[in-house]
Amino acid sequence: MAVKPDTIIEANNAAFSYSGEGETVSPAVSGINLQVRPGEYLALVGPNGSGKTTLLKLFNALLIPSGGEVMVKGISTAEEARLPEVRRTCGMIFQNPDNQLVATTVEEDIAFGLENLALPPDVIRKRVLDTAHILGLERLLKQPPHLLSGGEKQRVAIAGVLAMEPECILMDEPTAMLDPAARRDVLKTVHELNRARGIAVVHVTHFPEEAARADRVAVLDKGKLVADGESEDILTNLPFLHRLGLQGTTAVELADLLRRDGCSLPPKIFQDRELVDSLCLLAQNS
Ligand SMILES: Nc1ncnc2c1ncn2[C@@H]1O[C@H](COP(=O)(O)OP(=O)(O)OP(=O)(O)O)[C@@H](O)[C@H]1O
Ligand SMILES: [Mg+2]
Predict the structure, then answer these.
(1) CATH code, 125
(2) pTM exceeding 0.85
(3) Strand ordering across the sheet containing 67-72
(4) What would the pLDDT profile of 47-82 be if each residue is shown by its tens digit?
(5) Best of 25, 53, 57, 220 for a ligand 1 pocket test (most atoms within 8 Å of beta carbon)
(6) How many distinct structural domains can be found in the chain?
(7) Is position 277 within any domain?
(8) Nearest by Cα to 77 from 163, 160, 170
(9) pLDDT tens across 146-197, in order?
């Protein structure tokens, strides 16, 4: 028998329906088979209402599947007694950090989850300081979170999750409320955590440029997983993306327009740099 690859999250035929008042509601997600492996960066994309947030909540046991199962490090999320283990393995970051920040100072906020683990105070203190250092929050430790900027708040939310030493971070549109500089800043931090510490990331995003930086992209449509593959393969398949109302990266979209206008570009252009280099080459040869 083939050895099963190591997985952190495994959805087996998972489904979830939000129950209505006595009426039958069609499932928000169904028939989901998906694995998240240690250290990988997975982007989850799909139109509004396709089930991305629902799936992320299933991964973190905020929702329990109404069909099939979700396993986190071999533990079924339906096992209520083991919820703390599941939540410690998979930390969740939401779109709006205001919903996640609860304490009166940044340091208390980062320590919040740790306090519930009944760790000794000196261990908590060290973890808070280490995490604040990683996220560049040292000078803000005594500040009340509500006085911070959106990007700073999102970094405090990430710090609170990171302090729990998760193996996977689940992020639901974490940059949606941020300006371009704060977006870059938060993304850089998350990618560094992924690369340097091997923390797996599942990142729900509507930004093709963010999805393009993932190792893998999974696509949801009407609650079904309709594609799961390397980011380049998925995000250069414009007929598929456009059918779902999605877009490729700017470079992919522009290259497509240029080709339609008769510009002879290589068949696969994915990154901005590839498009710029191809256009420069064309200009030189014309
Ligand atoms: N609390 C809820 N009660 C009832 N139905 C819900 C609830 N939350 C979501 N749904 C429904 O479940 C489906 C999937 O919603 P979900 O929020 O998972 O989509 P999404 O892909 O995250 O969308 P978006 O891109 O807008 O964030 C939608 O049809 C939605 O209306
Ligand atoms: Mg959502």
Answers:
(1) 3.40.50.300
(2) yes
(3) 29-36, 9-16, 67-72, 75-76
(4) 999 999 999 999 999 999 999 999 999 999 999 999
(5) 53
(6) 1
(7) no
(8) 170
(9) 999 988 998 999 999 999 989 999 999 998 888 888 888 889 989 998 999 9
